[in-house]
Amino acid sequence: MSNKLNEILSEIKRADYATDTGRKLHAKMQKIKAGDTESHGNDELIAKITKNPQLMKFFTPTSRTEVPIAGNINGKFISRRIDRLVIDDETKNIYVLDYKSDTDKTAYRDKYAAQIREYIALLRDAYPDYTTHGYILWLQDFELVEFS
What's the pTM value of the predicted model, to 2 decimals? Predict the structure, then answer.
């Protein structure tokens, strides 16, 4: 095989590996519940989550996972699935969390920010009296970044 073909095949293998790894990590994140008295899920991931108090609200037993949402934005129908959603009726705040497993945080940053803004727009329509906050959790280093 030519070097060019080997390079293409290697890139495909790397992309497939990254996608598969991200999918598996995402599935592990979906199962995590972390509370003051009891936690469920991957112990290593729970340890990373509990180190960041800002993350804890997304992994309590009352948080929701894989929440479908749909509606119209600028006349276009949008259907999405939110990784983690917290609706705090007491404070009238909504928190949206999306996981990203990319190693390069800048490569798709604009695309991901737009995705979070879509979630926020759809939730504002459904909950007009609530304040909505959107976040990305970068899984390679567990950095939490807010997007509005």
Answer: 0.83
